[in-house]
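Work Package 4 report. The design task specified in the project plan requires that, given a folded chain encoded as structure tokens, an amino acid be chosen for each position. We show below one input record used in the internal validation round.
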């Protein structure tokens, strides 16, 4: 458990909460038992719940998993009281850790984050999470560009697995970030009433979160369309290549068929070898010229 206090506001970060932490939350903030039960284990779905003296938010942070080559959603829970912001998570979250270090090491930045209400502090935490999510999209863009560059270099078969991996990554990112829209809109429309004196100001901040979310979502949506178009193009290239191979073997079968027929009829007697060989040669040549004239080869 880590705590930062400034200007009457306190930010408490709890990583891998245990029963002792839950008891502390219940005794100090009168957190409902139903909410506490959702903290261990994680609730697995997003939500916004309003109580008399606090709010409970559950969201997911998209984090790229290098070994699995896909985006993994990590749950982050918020308990927001009048002068308290409590973040709870079962795994280490890089942007949260970095923001806390910046607040500890930079007094000016700390004063900015803790300058007003717990709602404003939530804004700065969420802004850091959205910036991190946008940075996570960089690797997706690079992977898509690499696939596009290699697609017309005769590497269709090698790209099948890579295409599916990137498509899964984009899908997992969409699943992780999509619920943020509902959460931010709920805060902008209803959550601001938790701070009546600052509701107008907070609405501007929460609307800014919605705008940042929409910018990221549009980028993800663009990547989704791009990877789907690349998958269709790849399927067409692979199908065309397969059809070309089948057509070539089919034409070769037709070219060699007369030769085999002549050889079968004459039974390849040694005395007739040269007659059969010449007949086979001219027959195959005629078939090849005919197919070439028809542009079938």
């Amino acid at each position: 458990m880590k705590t930062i206090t400034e200007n009457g506001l306190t930010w408490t970060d709890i990583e891998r909460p245990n029963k002792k932490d839950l008891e502390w939350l219940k005794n100090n903030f009168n957190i409902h038992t139903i909410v506490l039960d959702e903290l261990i284990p994680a609730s697995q779905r997003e939500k916004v719940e309003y109580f008399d003296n606090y709010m409970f938010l559950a969201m997911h942070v998209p984090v790229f998993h290098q070994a699995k080559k896909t985006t993994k959603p990590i749950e982050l829970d918020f308990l927001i009281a009048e002068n308290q912001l409590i973040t709870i998570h079962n795994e280490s979250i890089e942007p949260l850790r970095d923001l806390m270090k910046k607040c500890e090491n930079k007094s000016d930045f700390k004063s900015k984050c803790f300058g007003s209400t717990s709602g404003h502090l939530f804004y700065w935490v969420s802004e850091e999470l959205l910036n991190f999510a946008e940075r996570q999209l960089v690797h997706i863009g690079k992977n898509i560009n690499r696939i596009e560059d290699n697609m017309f270099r005769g590497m269709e078969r090698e790209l099948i697995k890579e295409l599916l991996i990137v498509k899964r990554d984009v899908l997992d990112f969409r699943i992780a970030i999509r619920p943020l829209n509902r959460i931010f809109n709920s805060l902008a429309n209803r959550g601001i009433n938790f701070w009546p004196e600052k509701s107008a100001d907070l609405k501007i901040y929460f609307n800014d979160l919605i705008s940042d979310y929409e910018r990221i979502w549009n980028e993800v949506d663009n990547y989704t369309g791009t990877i789907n178009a690349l998958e269709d193009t790849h399927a067409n290239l692979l199908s065309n290549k397969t059809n070309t191979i089948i057509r070539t073997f089919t034409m070769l079968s037709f070219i060699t068929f007369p030769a085999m027929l002549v050889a079968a009829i004459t039974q390849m007697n040694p005395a007739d070898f040269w007659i059969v060989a010449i007949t086979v040669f001219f027959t195959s040549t005629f078939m090849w010229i005919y197919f070439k004239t028809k542009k079938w080869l």
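Residues 254 and 287 are 8 Å apart (CA to CA). Validation will be extended to a larger panel in the next phase.
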